[in-house]
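Homework help board

Subject: predicted structure for assignment chain

Our instructor gave us this sequence and asked us to write out the predicted structure in token form, then describe one feature. I got the tokens but I'm not sure how to describe them. Can anyone check?
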Amino acid sequence: MNQADIIRMAEEGLREVGLYPKQIIADGQKHRCPVEGKPNKLDGEYKIYPGDRPGLAWHNYRTQKSGYIRLYSTYFREHPSERAKYILSKSVTAVSSHPYLVRKGVSLPPNLKMKDGRLVVPGYDANGDLQTLQFIGGEGTKRLLKGGKALGSSFALKGSGSSESLYLVE
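My token output:
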């Protein structure tokens, strides 16, 4: 997420809870702002936590309600490919001894990743843009990234040797 995305998501979140700052500042500091029904008073307060997993804490002194909104969660729901990139960046290099690879007799493909003991198989479109992820457990359980675009996505497995054979797998 970039700064503009954080501010846009924060603005949507603040409006949903009845806070109306004239300017949204994402600097990790508390900022007072007007609330619904009191446009000239600073009866609201918010604080945006920037970073890898941005969030928004808010309080309405008029209603005495407060809360926290995970901005990254909302953003990732709207942009599944960005969520896929984030998960892939937090994944580690897969190991050739992963039970699924061993059972299938597949050599470890280069750049294959793992997270929480599951293989993380990226799905790319024809332009090479990441669209989705498939998670494969050691016992063979397969799950797709929620909201990801699986149709038309693929992951290339390059074999060794000089064979020009093409293998298509589901």
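Reply (TA_rk): Your tokens look well-formed. For the description, you could write something like this. Strands lie at 30-33, 44-49, 55-60, 65-70, 92-93, 113-115, 118-124, 130-136, 142-144. That's the kind of observation they're looking for.
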